[in-house]
What we know:
The protein has eleven helices and seven strands. The chain folds into two domains: 5-174, NAD(P)-binding Rossmann-like Domain (Rossmann fold), CATH 3.40.50.720; 184-269, N-(1-d-carboxylethyl)-l-norvaline Dehydrogenase, domain 2 (Orthogonal Bundle). It is an alpha/beta fold and 278 residues long. The mean pLDDT is 97. The structure holds acetoacetyl-coenzyme A (CAA) and NADPH dihydro-nicotinamide-adenine-dinucleotide phosphate (NDP). Residues 1-7, 24-27, 30, 81-84, 88, 92, 110-112, 134-136, 229-230, 233, 237 line the site of NADPH dihydro-nicotinamide-adenine-dinucleotide phosphate.
Amino acid sequence: xxxxxxxxxxxxxxxxxxxxxxxxxxxxxxxxxxxxxxxxxxxxxxxxxxxxxxxxxxxxxxxxxxxxxxxxxxxxxxxxxxxxxxxxxxxxxxxxxxxxxxxxxxxxxxxxxxxxxxxxxxxxxxxxxxxxxxxxxxxxxxxxxxxxxxxxxxxxxxxxxxxxxxxxxxxxxxxxxxxxxxxxxxxxxxxxxxxxxxxxxxxxxxxxxxxxxxxxxxxxxxxxxxxxxxxxxxxxxxxxxxxxxxxxxxxxxxxxxxxxxxxxxxxxxxxxxxxxxx
Length: 278
Ligand SMILES: CC(=O)CC(=O)SCCNC(=O)CCNC(=O)[C@H](O)C(C)(C)COP(=O)(O)OP(=O)(O)OC[C@H]1O[C@@H](n2cnc3c(N)ncnc32)[C@H](O)[C@@H]1OP(=O)(O)O
Ligand SMILES: NC(=O)C1=CN([C@@H]2O[C@H](COP(=O)(O)OP(=O)(O)OC[C@H]3O[C@@H](n4cnc5c(N)ncnc54)[C@H](OP(=O)(O)O)[C@@H]3O)[C@@H](O)[C@H]2O)C=CC1
């Protein structure tokens, strides 16, 4: 459900793993954009020699797209990756609950920060609901955080873990159901600190990023990473973490808020802390 940046990557790795994948989007235009993103990422795999053209074609054949939620009736695993917005997500979980007929089906959320219990309680089967949090870019990064809520069943935990490790061949870490889980609890204050550093005139965006790439061997600096994640998504994650803990380090700085107001969302919009216009 939802095939933006993350949903497209999740659909791609599932199709490459041999699964029959149905991708839901809100409109035909969004569907076309998702199809294009997945095809281009598979093309990249072929160019780098990691994927044969036969495997690429087979993966594309396993992917179907729909804008009609009723098509989800026969699914036994639903992965939600719609925007980081509690209201939108709870509506999606409530709707999926009405449609999916298999009472053993697992409902997973790729949320970065919204407590899983809130999503579980939107359904009639919270024991089937679990956080399965992938990392961006999904075809490249090996980690998945597994986040059961207080009501998630033991079988759901075991089946979700087997899906991640045995089917997708990714690595899991486990987290309690706290906004931000393990990785974002550490990463988001770092990204927000880099924005505050830029905002205060302490250093330029280039120097902040080069500092962490050349001085700490990070693959990309914090401002470029925020551009990759999306400034809107970073703001939404910070807000839900701040709502949970009231910790000032999680509070989104004004520069981030203004850039989101201005539509400067990072790589996906062509401009964020850096420019991506070709
Ligand atoms: C917000 C949340 O809730 C959680 C999160 O996800 S936080 C974000 C976590 N992500 C990160 O921290 C990303 C950090 N950055 C990186 O890992 C790397 O910079 C990067 C993988 C994005 C790009 O790596 P790079 O070395 O600069 O670029 P590049 O050489 O183009 O790519 C390296 C490899 O990854 C592949 N790749 C890069 N981006 C890709 C994509 N979007 N899809 C598929 N493959 C991709 C490339 O094909 C390349 O593969 P080969 O070596 O086989 O050719
Ligand atoms: N960006 C990142 O680096 C990471 C993000 N995440 C999490 O993944 C989730 C998705 O993030 P991301 O992919 O970046 O966001 P995007 O904005 O790229 O994608 C969200 C997608 O969901 C679609 N959508 C919205 N409402 C619905 C709906 N009711 N039914 C179906 N589709 C819907 C949107 O369509 P439209 O645009 O047309 O509204 C959009 O295509 C969030 O929870 C985020 O926190 C997790 C790890 C990393």
